[in-house]
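pasting input
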Amino acid sequence: MSNTTLSRRRLIAGLGAVSAFSTMPAWAQGHSIGGHGMSRRGAATIRAGFDEVQGEVIDLAVRDGLRIIEGRRSIGRAVNGSVPGPLIRLREGQSVRFNVANHLREDTSIHWHGLLVPFQMDGVPGVSFPGIKPNQTFTYEFPVRQAGTYWYHSHSGLQEQQGHYGPLVIDPAGAEPVQYDRDYILLLSDFTELDPHFIMSRLRTGEGYFNRQQTSWTDRYKLSGAERRMWAEMRMPPTDIMDIGAPTYTFLANGRGPTEGLEYLFRPGERIRLRVINGSAQSFFNVRIPGLPMTIIGADGQNVRPVEVDEFQIGTAETYDVILQPGSAEAYAIVGESMDRSGMALAMLASRPGARATVPPLRDPPLLTMGDMGMDHGSGGMDHSAMGHGNMPQPESTANSASAARVDHAAMGHGAPAAAGAGAAAADHAAMGHGGSPGTAAAAMGAMSMDGMNMRDTSLLPPDVKVGPGIDMVSMSPVDKTGDPGLGLRDVPHRVLNYRMLAALEPNKDTREPSRLLELHLTGNMERYMWSFDGRMYSAVSDVPIRFAWNERVRVKLVNNTMMGHPIHLHGMFFEIVNGQAPAHQPRKNVIIVQPGASATFDLTANEPGDWAFHCHLMYHMHAGMMQTVTVVGPEGAA
Amino acid sequence: MSMHASLSLAALATALLGAPASAQHQGHSMPMQMLSQAPTPPPGPTPAPTPVDPHAGHAMPVESAAQPPASDPHAGHVMPATPAAAANSGEAMEGMDHSAMGHGTMAGSTDPSPGPEMETPPPPEAGSGPPRAADAIWGADAMSEAREELRRTHGDFNVFWFQGDRLEVHARKGANDYIWDFQGYYGSPTSRFWFKSEGEGSFGERVEDAEFQALYSRAISPFWDLQAGVRQDVAGPDTTYAVVGVQGLAPYLFELDAALFVSHRGDITARIEAELDQRITQRLILQPRVEVNLAAQDIPWSGVGAGLDKVEAGVRLRYEIIREFAPYIGIEQNWRIGGSADYARALGEDPSVTNYVVGIRFWF
């Protein structure tokens, strides 16, 4: 990229590096969707960044190509010649037909993540349809019944890792609940030079293969000798935060590496809607913009009551919409730090092209604690059940970030009234003695001895869990941690989002009391890299669906008996996280992170008939077995 | 990105920035909802005084929306923002109606739902049997292949692993020896065909020992496999053994391999190997290793005495250039013990030998 003259073609390709362009309508790019860089046979280059497509009929083509990220090369799978694939822009109430042409030498598919579609249009080969064969064009057709920020990706093989994903935004039929001057997309993902099948194999055969932050004699982790021996005794790595991190991964913002200059332009005082999508295969990100608070207005495409934070964790496949109001600084760094802090995705909010803010260095990698093994030694407000505390959980949820919020507010002095409100809340709760920081409690727990503790007491599991080699740990006393901001964020000195701070903006339509409880155990064996629900990998339960009656209202409790957070995704329906909000305002989501050793609960109205995939959205966990089919019997099946 | 390219980009982006406002929205961000709609009233009440919005013409600053949820719980007397949210959309009213009519006080309550506490099975209306909804749309034939592919690739699939744990040269007084110690498997996480081979010899001479094992390995617990199969020794008198053993990861991360051998001549021997990886850095690894050989009887033709036969204790320092390839150096002390030591002395060999080792560890 050192030519001094730029052809028009190069200019356009290069312009992709400026994010503003990435959301440019197709007309502005001369209708060249899918055309850039694809001219040379066999060595087609996949562009970073994306075009926009819209309308009633949308043609999408999936092709191989060469991806080059910061000079690192890899064979990619791209939709319309770019990674991410084109922004699909729809309007609530329209109908849409997608003609998806498969130019790969293997099957492909597109799953519309978070969209309410007839099950046969959901795009999961082997569950909802047969998949799309090479040289075949498959037509998806469905009415658009919702609005919000979503995305799409392959559900075939390991193509997601190779770039087969893109953003999907649906404008509401009515008015947006908030106003803004600019509307940007930040799609976070992970890039690797390695073949994803190689990664899958190494995860099974080479314990810790991708972890370059393991404990060692020369590490800087604050672990005592006793703690190190305890982890060794348990045969568990306290550093297994993400399975795969940098340098295996380069973390991407809209398909660009951190040095590739993704930039969003703004004018001071403008309100910016940033639609953050975690389209990665296997990564969690902690998103923050130093010096600029973020107001969360949407989660997984659904509007939530605005809540202002300084940082939030976004699990794989989650989406968050935030409103930013940049001030007088020339530029702000949008930092998507990987949860294991091995790397970051990076973008700039710039008041003029080329303006750059200081990029904060990577923070120290977090460690797992005994709390992440499900030890119940009271971690302040965090461990209180969301249920049974009457009105308490909501205030407490604020308190979880409360002590932090106080510090932050004082230190950073954000003058927004909302921030002031939160600050007051923090002070309140500190005074009331609810300010217990999970981080502190967890740290205290880490020092405890393991004597007499059974990390795998299978008698704690219900009888429908299959006990076997596939379960290496049983959470001793799993508690609801929807108030947990996530690994690495429990003790940061500013306001961090957690699920208890989310409340649906529009009330939920079905607020019936659930008629039954379904308890599912997330189980795994890190050493063998087996992941499952209730001790059975998908291969053992492919013909045993989780069944719901028509319109049944069910409370589903997910109990995590592993030391990893799992972003559990249900296709085809939204569920409402039981987070202490009134039933009408439990936030609607389609992905729920279940924290290590903890539980999380959602209510579901089973009103979308058919077979649906239900799985951990860490792609390699899903392929290692953490998946099951959900069957909703249609109204005709109701007695 | 070269400097020139950056500058050109900057120039073009500047041009975009300088465009009229509407064009800017087209060019710099997604076409905006509010621009393409008829003017909309600011949704929701604004219970708090609206702060001065420096950006003129925007009726609804985020603060006004953000405040109810932030402040309500602490006011303590207000139902958390339900009325405010209800006013935000027509759909909300529908929701309110529904809850008020159908579900008495509970649904309209601001309390979180207590929910059922005990897990109960699904009702009969949930149906039974395998998930086959897609068959009705696409046909059972069209679906079966994809179903099988999904089952085959999500969970219990096979992988191949081959490890040269030790491929090394022993330098000691008198002679230079070599040894190999390989193992590998093909199979699923819980059921594997496992093979092992080890042997030794001196350069320029005939191979002294060479054995091959073929085992079926079955997971019996999270960290342990039970293995059974056959071993064939090919150097010296051909000997066939039945093998049963366990292999896995012991507490404190010791890699353990213990096996019992019964030869076709009826001799019973056993071998226990333990290794421990101690990371000094992410790539420099110190590995203590101990191997103990036992025999239930004297085996004169191979120089083995009953009881403790042979002990090896060594330490190897390897550097992982990549995970799969690591050269190492080390030192190892071998002792022949008891009857075995006597046999060794009778052959003029020293029962206690110190080896300096250089080798490579590799796997794929």
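fyi Confidence is low (pLDDT under 50) at residues 1-41, 378-450 of chain A.
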